[in-house]
Design a protein that fits this description.
This protein has 16 helices and 14 strands. By secondary structure, the chain is an alpha/beta fold.
Length: about 425
């Protein structure tokens, strides 16, 4: 399909032709990731859902697209001077990866709180790492000092036409592979990916709905477009889109071309990460799962539609992923903690184990308390963590203990931050 630039405002800083040129530059430099159907999630979310798997890129993130376009456009003198970027993760790895391939010295300024795994993955690409402050915002002064003192060329994570058009190539690929897609859901941090994709897709399909998604603790682009005070701040699983100040260039494009920005709660992000693993066997970081979070949070806006979303990154810490999955089991009633008040006499522990086993439950952990609970001296409290099939199975286990005259109650069953 040919582009129709006349369908777009004339004063945008990135044009469809610029995105198409970026696609030619990227041919062979990055993976052309698949757009796959997601039948299990489609059934859950009542839409025909496709996933653009940018978590399969060399650095497990879409950031390699814009980074390459920016770096390959540097002059010989700029390449010799080297580049500098500030990032706590995906942008750092994208710049370091392509700088190494192109023979360009790279310096990455990262918060001192960045997880060791991300620091080491970035260093493994040959970049010089400078640790500074606690947040990316704390890295600004040190980055500027390196620009001023060493003449390094800055590579902005999102507010640069080359970065925007590089990320926009995702839109061209979705258009080529996705058939008739009604809506495309794109995570928004600084806005580079959404801005580039909106330019690419709206030029070809003016009727397509471009839907952005931000976590509600970092609604910086939403607030900027609507003229609201900036409310961004706090802790989030979706740190890849936890941007306090959106781009100036990206804001112009998003205000002109994006149909809607949905704000999602933290619990929807956590639930989305869990569902991607369990239903599609796709590992995504919090930001990468934001599109699924939007579908979970506002399913009525997409019911019956053909929808595509970008799984924009898969760089999630293993321990964090484990916690998300375990919390999901608790939330779904598939991992429970029971407190049983039992007579402190021989054979009672065996009776409890036999009862749970006969119902099909699997005991994961047992804590036998005699001294620190407010129970009669001849009794004891037994805390048991049990793997179950579903909430109905939990009711069956509790009923069995009632039949035996053993008092049993659930502990920690209140909905946590990951509840849907």
């Amino acid at each position: 399909m040919t582009t129709s630039p006349e369908t777009l405002p004339a004063d945008l800083p990135v044009t469809p032709e610029m995105v198409e040129d970026a696609a030619r530059l990227l041919d062979g430099a990055v993976l052309r990731t698949p757009l796959i159907e997601a039948p299990n999630l489609s059934a859950t979310l009542d839409c025909a859902l496709s996933l653009k798997l940018e978590n399969l890129q060399h650095t497990s993130s879409f950031k390699v697209r814009g980074s390459f376009v920016k770096l390959q456009g540097l002059t010989g003198a700029e390449r010799r001077r080297g580049v500098v970027a500030m990032s706590a993760g995906n942008h750092a790895q994208g710049v370091a990866y392509h700088a190494a391939r192109l023979g360009i010295p790279a310096t990455i300024v990262m918060p001192a709180t960045t997880p060791f795994s991300k620091v080491e993955r970035t260093r493994a690409h040959g970049a010089r790492i400078v640790l500074e402050g606690r947040t990316v915002a704390d890295c600004v002064a040190r980055t500027q000092a390196l620009i001023d003192g060493e003449g390094l060329v800055p590579v902005h994570p999102y507010d640069d036409p080359d970065i925007i058009r590089g990320q926009g190539t995702l839109g061209l690929e979705i258009d080529a592979d996705g058939g008739h897609v009604d809506s495309v859901i794109v995570p928004i941090g600084g806005g580079g990916m959404m801005a580039g994709m909106a330019v690419a897709l709206k030029a070809r399909r003016p009727d397509i709905r471009m839907i952005g998604v931000q976590v509600d603790s970092y609604p910086s682009m939403y607030d900027a477009v609507k003229g609201l005070p900036n409310r961004a701040g706090g802790s989030t699983l979706a740190e890849g889109i936890a941007v306090k100040e959106p781009g100036v260039l990206t804001r112009r494009i998003i205000a002109a071309l994006v149909d809607e920005i949905i704000l999602v709660p933290e619990r929807a992000i956590e639930r989305a990460v869990q569902l991607l693993v369990e239903q599609q066997r796709v590992v995504a970081e919090g930001a990468g799962a934001a599109g699924i979070a939007a579908l979970l949070h506002a399913p009525e806006r997409f019911a019956g539609q053909s929808v595509a979303t970008v799984i924009c990154g898969g760089n999630i810490d293993s321990r964090l992923l484990s916690s998300v999955l375990m919390r999901g089991l608790v939330r779904d009633g598939r991992l429970i903690r029971l407190r049983l008040e039992i007579h402190d006499e021989p054979g009672m522990l065996a009776t409890v184990a036999e009862t749970i086993g006969k119902t099909g439950g699997n005991i994961v952990e047992v804590l036998h308390q005699r001294m620190f609970q407010d129970t009669p001296i001849k009794n004891a409290d037994l805390d048991v963590v049990v793997e179950t099939r579903n909430p109905a199975h939990v009711d069956e286990i509790l009923a069995r203990f009632v039949e035996l005259g053993i008092e049993a109650r659930l502990l920690g069953t209140e909905a946590g931050p990951g509840s849907g």
